[in-house]
């Protein structure tokens, strides 16, 4: 996999480069600012030299959500480009903004999106697996983010059964129906039935767009934005 990396902390950036290269990936560019991320993306992506963009949320030049905004811009210009953003803390507003853009891609578009906490990098196998899921068009939301967002559920989410909540959490982690079936020791048909029930209870139809993304957004809207 060819990865465009943006991370302002030099030690973490160098560590990510080493980790990714040891795993057999190619880091086509590793930059410390959102400005340089945009510049590299504008040349490398059209040239077909990037399979995934991996960026920190908070970066120079503004040291706010510059990395996230650069990722959103890249996604708007290149809707099929898989993007993973890394965050130091659970920032549901940022995750909601990122996933909301993907939901508008529509049901037939590859999602290819991840929102991970930086602690996930230390769990190397999980981190690398998450990148592969996103590259394949899946959605991965860090389990800690999902847990935090489930603490105060909306009425719609609270109507889900414990099994449906469990399955929705696995959907949020980017798992396919087949993977959920194997993990929970359920038939594929049973998983499909549960997933359909989740969509129905959340009021998500096929006409709304990417239903799996919208189901994840239901988590993100389950509690007020962090202050």
TrEMBL record:
Pfam families in alphabetical order: GerE, Response_reg
InterPro entries for the chain: CheY-like_superfamily, NreC/VraR/RcsB-like_REC, Sig_transdc_resp-reg_C-effctor, Sig_transdc_resp-reg_receiver, Tscrpt_reg_LuxR_C, WalR-like
The keyword Cytoplasm is annotated on this UniProt entry: no
Domain of life: Bacteria
Domain Response regulatory: 2-124
Entry keyword set: DNA-binding, Phosphoprotein, Transcription, Transcription regulation
Ranges where the HTH luxR-type domain occurs: 153-222
Claim: Phosphoprotein is one of the keywords in the record: yes
Modified residues (4-aspartylphosphate): 56
PANTHER family: TRANSCRIPTIONAL REGULATORY PROTEIN NARL-RELATED, TWO-COMPONENT RESPONSE REGULATOR
Protein name: Response regulator
Source organism: Brachybacterium tyrofermentans
